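Annex B. Sample input.
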Amino acid sequence: MNAIQLLKHQHQEVEKCFKDIEQCDDDQRDEMRRLFAQLADNLAAHADIEEELFYPEVKQRQQDGMVQHAVEEHFEMKQFLAQLLDLEVGSSQFLMTLAQLKDSVLGHVEEEEGEMFAEVRKLFTKSELDELGKDMEARFEELIGSEPRFEVRDQVEAPAQV
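Annex B, continued. Sample output.
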């Protein structure tokens, strides 16, 4: 998968996680915990590969602030994730914060897919996107097995430097 295809695929996976969590009944807390851990790990690893690999490459070729805006949206997402990690899964506070996280993430996805990716297609060759995608996929696989959601608590003081 090239970089854009990979990110779009991950966006779809995250949206599915949100839907699966929302379909859990109150008596399915264990399943909700499992799904939330999956969602949080996917979001954390996704943000990491964008901030470590994708955004720096985009920023080198494009200077209109799009990358900085995306990094600030990641920061907001990480703040919500950090809050959620400290809440009882399924509680009213958890569900309210999860809804805020979902709104934040889906807004970010809409902007990325609607604006940034179109710009990126103009800035990169097909082979560059393919190579970047390979690097991002390898890094994601490395991160996802380490429960990256727990690293988010250390990333809520300031937005990432890209």
